[in-house]
Here is the input.
Amino acid sequence: MNPEIQLMLARRQRFIQRWPLIALVAALITIGFYIWAFIKQPILVNPLHVINLIQTNGLDSATQSLLAIVAPILFLAIGALLLLLLLFVTVGLINEGRLIRLIEQKQS
Here is the structure.
């Protein structure tokens, strides 16, 4: 292997080794944000809270029509997609690390 490929493989290997920490921090921040939003801003993430506000006339009509059910579901879907993206990147990097180790074994 030429030195450029070895350098690239070494950089990718370092990134792959650091990725679990990066993914864990990103996932914890995302989950922490949703926990905070559920406690402090339930109108954004809790459809049951929105339904309760509608039933008790706690929302004005403009807000009611905008937030009825769409806002919490959309907000939750964005969080789920973000966590799914982290999962896919993690699986891809695990496979990449496995292939890099295989290349290194073949070169030895």
Remarks:
- Residues 39 and 45 are 9 Å apart (CA to CA).
- The chain has a mean pLDDT of 87.
- The radius of gyration is 22 Å.
